[in-house]
Write a structure and sequence with these properties.
With 411 residues, the chain is an all-alpha fold. The protein folds into four domains: 85 residues, no CATH class; 53 residues; 222 residues, no CATH class; 29 residues. It is 77% helix and 0% strand. The protein has 15 helices and no strands. Helix 6 packs antiparallel against helix 7, helix 6 crosses helix 14 and helix 10 runs antiparallel to helix 11.
Length: 411
Amino acid sequence: MANHRVISEATNHNHNHHLSYSLLHGLNNNPPPPGFINQDGSSSFDFGELEEAIVLQGVKYRNDEAKPPLFAGGGATTLEMFPSWPIRTHQTLPTRKATTSGKQLDAKTLRRLAQNREAARKSRLRKKAYVQQLESSRIKLSQLEQELQRARSQGLFMGGCGPPGPNITSGAAIFDMEYGRWLEDDNRHMSEIRTGLQAHLSDNDLRLIVDGYIAHFDEIFRLKAVAAKADVFHLIIGTWMSPAERCFIWMAGFRPSDLIKILVTQMDLLTEQQLMGIYSLQHSSQQAEEALSQGLDQLQQSLIDTLAASPVIDGMQQMAVALGKISNLEGFIRQADNLRQQTVHQLRRILTVRQAARCFLVIGEYYGRLRALSSLWLSRPRETLISDETSCQTTTDLQIVQSSRNHFSNF
């Protein structure tokens, strides 16, 4: 029969393939001869036996389902021409692909949600930290205002001259507030030293108090170094001091040699070696003070010459040179503070612990009396002010009359 001949030719074409795949390839690759379809002269081809063979091959495929077929990729496309035979592999692949894509979409969504939650959590933390920072800044500002008001009432701010003028810089105002806080700490340290000396503490306990005061004394030089960079004129003029302290100001502070003179008259039971060390320190301090004073005088004279000279080309260049000379003032203030600091540390090395405590107590009480004198001077009654002004005016008139008489007596 014609059908058996076609199947035999397809089987000879490929022995390793199944029957249905061989049959279809035989139909596609080897076109039948002209008498294949109409061998008996009939006008149509009978597909009955071909369909029966395909059904039998499907039964065999189900029995051998555990074995992976070699034509899994191509068979699905070929057998789609026959809808009566459902292909299991062809139907499950799209479902599996959809499931996989769904899992990927869920993972991306979960990751995005986790990122959003983390970003929201960080945003809440930043907001909370910002609110806490604002609250702490408000509290600190309130404390600074209270300290400023207390310093003004005690005559400590601006030397008791009242509120700062319009030309004061922010750095100078900050230094004034820090200096007021430093004075409060200084009073506390003085009280601790006085109590320790009166209680006759041991040398070890007293050494802790003295070392604490040394660290406190070094703090004022650090504050002045920062203020000198912001406004050196504020330190040189001494508006942060009390009026009585400004009478003895030298390069924004005290003269170390004058401080040593006060200590020598107040200290008792000094050995000969200690006296020699103190006098040597006083002599070296005086030499350093003279050198710094001469340097400052030369700088001032140079500044006068620069400003007094007529501008040759451009006046701005002249101002630039003058500003450069003014910036050297910071160096003089820093060297003077270093001399003061080294003098205090050297005194600590020369003296014993108990003598050093007595020394620092004398220094603190001396400057405390100067500030108290300033407060009394500023708070004296108005009648005293009027009488002082009248006596001052009378004295000035007498001096003018005497000078005029002496002037005309020469003729």
